Amino acid sequence: MNQKSNILTVLICCYNAGDFLRNCLDSLMHQSTSGFDVLFINDASTDDSLEIAKAYSRFLENFTLLNNKKNEGLVKCCKKALALIKTPYFMRLDADDYLSPDAVERTLKELASSEKRDFIVFKRWDVWGNEIKEVETNTDIYTWIAVGTVFSTEAVKSVGGYSDEYWEEYDLYIKLLEAGYKYKISPYRIYYYRRGHGSMSENYKKNKEGFESLLKKWGLNILEKYGNLRRILDYYGTKI
Q1: Which of 150, 171, 197, 233 is deepest in the core (most CB within 10 A)?
Q2: Do 187 and 113 meet the contact criterion of CB atoms below 8 Å apart?
Q3: Are residues 125 and 239 in the same domain?
């Protein structure tokens, strides 16, 4: 009997996340259901991330481990992954974050729903040290994050995949929406998003430049179709 193919890949791009990686991979080991692939790309970490990933690869089914010889950065890792993903859907999981035990089960339930969508945005918790806060999700894409969203692999490929924009996630969302792809905001909360430990989201200067680059590429009219970007540009003092 042929083994049933999985429909979901969890993609982890990792650089020096050893302090949090066990928590991340434990959350995959303790899912309430199996039947998903894991694609782990170690981006030439200089800490013990690779050794941790190798250890977990022996216990997680359908675990593919790639090790970059030199650091390539997040976007190049995502591009590499997109060419390798074999399942019709994928979700990014940052190496310093983790999933709820029912995350895959909830995801598969959504994908089996008669209400088909090209990508599904799940609710999340923000983790600030020992404090965990529920975050609600609305239709403003600039309140979304890159991770914890389930994408149709084919849809992402059809719009050219990941760009070199600093805010590659917003650029991807806009490309999908401009191409007519449909999304759903799930009622389920499945993702723990770790904040406040020197992550990209805390870098003021790069964030500002990233939003200004999006403005130059798309123009304000298109950007404001999908959320309140003007509020963000005002925060950074960007002239429109």
Answers
A1: 150
A2: no
A3: no
Residues 36 and 223: their CA atoms lie apart, in Å, by 34
pLDDT of residue 239: 81
The answer to whether residues 56 and 14 belong to one domain is yes
Round to whole Å and give the CA distance between 34 and 30: 9
DSSP-assigned letter for residue 3: P
What is the per-residue pLDDT for 134? 97
For residue 201, what pLDDT is reported?
A: 54
Would you say 32 and 107 are in contact if contact means Cβ atoms under 8 Å apart? no
Sign of CA dihedral 172, 33, 134, 202: negative
Q: Which CATH number do you get for residue 77?
A: 3.90.550.10
Q: Which pLDDT score is estimated for 2?
A: 41
- pLDDT at position 203 is 85
Name residues whose C-beta falls within 8 Å of residue 46's C-beta, 6 or more positions apart in sequence: 16
> What does the pLDDT read at residue 1?
35
Instruction: Please tell me the distance from the alpha carbon of residue 149 to that of residue 193, in angstroms, as a whole number.
Output: 12
Residues lower than pLDDT 70 in the chain: 1-4, 197-202
Q: Are residues 141 and 88 in the same domain?
A: yes
Place of tokens 């200089």: 46
Token output for 58: 């022996």
Q: Which two tokens stand for residue 8?
A: 């979901």
